[in-house]
Structures are given as structure tokens and as C-alpha cells.
Amino acid sequence: MNTELVVASVSGAVALLSVLLSSRFSWKQALLAAQLERQKAEQLKLAEHQDLMSQRRDPLLWAAYDLQSRLFNIVDRQFLNIYYSPGHDPDRDYALRSTLHVMADYLGQVELLRRKVQFLDLGNRENSRTVVRHLTAISNVLNTDGYDDPHFRVFRSNQRALGELVICDSNDRCLGYAEFCRRLDTDADFAGWFEPLSDGIRELASSTRPHPRLVRLQVALMDLIDFLDPDADRFPDHRRSRLSLP
What we know:
Elements: H1 3-76, H2 79-83, H3 89-117, H4 126-143, H5 156-165, H6 177-186, H7 188-205, H8 212-228
């Protein structure tokens, strides 16, 4: 066999093998780069999720605690019967307006969280799904007409509307109590949205009937609090009283 032909054949084979090896190496490099990009994207989403929950957890937790505390006091300690019914104007104003505010603040915090979550891919995050389940359970108690008394019934769209109304222009916090009261006094449209809930609070002040919705609502809020603060870092166990379900 011609020596030059052999050399040329071997050189060609070596060149072809080099091309194949180079292509395989490049393919592996591209595959590794794509995998690293996916991991980086997943870590970024996780960081965004953790940052979101760290920002929104405490405001939601405090709002849920304040609302459940007021419900507990209404049902178990006759808060409205004591502070609203006798007719002393400052006490009546406080009893009514502070109750409206704790409800509005909770709904506002839920609306803020909902707006933030929709921009993140949290579908595979078990904690996120659990938070949504708790929020849905609370919303269902407010929304349902399955209780004999209509007190504290707020239909789902109105829940969102009340939450939207108390979100500040900065879009990351809700109205404080003083500003909330000022808006009730000076903005008739704003106050009108809260009038059905105000009527229910006034009726509760003179009612002696059981309040199953309020009880269910307080228990559902405590379930949310237990999930958001499982180690009782924010609220110790002795501040986690639950109403007895009927």
C-alpha cells in the first residue's frame, strides 16, 4: 500500500476523530451551561420567594393576630356589648372603627401578598400552597351565607375591594389607624364600602345569639398564625387562645 495513502488515511481518521471529540465536548459544555442556567434561575426564584415571604410574612401575621384577637374579645369577652352598647361616644367610636380597621388591615395584607405572588412561579412551593390554603379557608368563612346570622359576611369580591382601598399609594403597606379614621370621616365613597360591615358590628353589639361565623373565622386565623409562626417566636403559646367550635 502506498505510504502516502496510509499517512493520509490515518491523518484523516485522526482529524475526523478530533472533530467528533470536539463536537461531543462542545455538546457537553452546552448541556452543562444550560443546566447551570436552570439551577441559577431556580435559585433566583427561590431567593425571590424567600424575600417576598420575609417581607410580607410579619405584616400578614400581625394583621391576622389583631383580627383574631378582636374576634375572640367580641365572642368571649363581650367587647362590643361593653364598649359599644352603653352609648359613650368615644368608646363607641373606638369599638366600631378599630374593629373595621383590623378587618381592613388583614384584607389589605392579603391583597398585597396576592399581587406580589402572581409575578413569581411558586406553584411547586409547598409552603406557598399551604399559605394559599389557609387564606382561602379564611376567605370562605367570610364569604359563605351558610350561617344563620349575616354578621361579618363579606363576599369574596368585596374582600378584595376593601383590601384594595386600604393599600397606600406606595403599594407596600396599608393605612394606619389614624389615616383610616380620617378617610372614614372625609371620603364618603371610602366609608360607603365599609357601611355593610359597620351595620353588622352595630347589630352584634346588641345581639345575644351565638356567632358561629366569628368563631370559625377566629379558628381559621389561628391556623394561619400557627403556620406562619410555628415556633411561637412572635406570639407565645399563652397568647394563642382559640374559641370553641360549635
